[in-house]
Amino acid sequence: MSLYRQRLPQLRDELFLTDGGLExxxxxxxxxxxPLFAAFDLLRTEAGTAxxxxxxxxxxxxxxxxxxxxxxxxxxxxxxxxxxxxxGYDATALAxxxxxxxxxxxxxxxxLAGGKLVISGNLGPRGDGYRADSRMSATESEAYHAPxxxxxxxxxxxxxxxxxxxxxxEAIGIVRAAQAAGMPVAISFTTETDGRLPSGEALDQAIAxxxxxxxxxxxxxxxxxxxxxxxTGALERGGEWRxxxxxxxxxASRRSHAELDESSDLDPGNPDELAREYGQLRVAxxxxxxxxxxxxxxxxxxxxxxxxxxxxxxV
Length: 315
What we know:
Layout: E1 16-17, H1 22-29, H2 46-66, E2 69-73, H3 81-86, H4 91-111, E3 117-123, H5 138-153, E4 159-165, H6 168-181, E5 185-189, H7 203-214, E6 220-224, H8 232-236, E7 245-250, H9 257-262, H10 271-284, E8 290-293, H11 299-309
Parallel strand pairs: 1-2, 1-8, 2-3, 3-4, 4-5, 5-6, 6-7, 7-8
């Protein structure tokens, strides 16, 4: 049974840590090959599952030491039909991989022995996470993402979250599919260095369109895969949309998406500097409760962010 589906604890004021850049950590720090950036494929084997288990356990230890809540995303950012088919998954095998991803985090929840762990079924874009050159209508998006969301709804996952959304229509479709499945959903948009989505749409406008089209459907919004300084343009526009932002998973690197796409090295930035920038953004996003990292970040960044933002939370 899901513990938090009916009442997500991160909607209160206590801090929840999440993880860093899963895929970049595995590739650059662990030396693991991830075709198509598909971490879920590691669940095929016991050895691969053990790698993921160790990865998540490190963040559980940080949350326990800092006395915060913990929210973990399943390693399923690429576990949707189009990407998975390229790796040889049919619909049955893909649904099984999504279920096993939740099972892995349930194991960790049991091991925490009373620790507060929210489990989120992670969704990624149908297309490239850095470009919006291949788009769906909201109706097409709903049909495309609904099978993965229904699979998560049949598990003990507490919610679903769509990351690296590059245009509003895909986000709207995901929210509608989550509403139909009875799953709380968070929508995380990504921005370019000018604070706009890769589609060119302003962040506040994308949120407003999603709100209007879904009757305020998301439990909250997030921003991921952008350095804090990339949000300056969006923040200059002002507006109440900032009250709907509860999550931030920033890149450590100041590089643009195009530069990151072309990079053969990892730019880890500076963990303490990134943490200070999170602290500054907390003024702009007063409801911020879920913090972690994205590309280039690892446990060092999350630990520093937790130290900067955290007040001990009961578990």
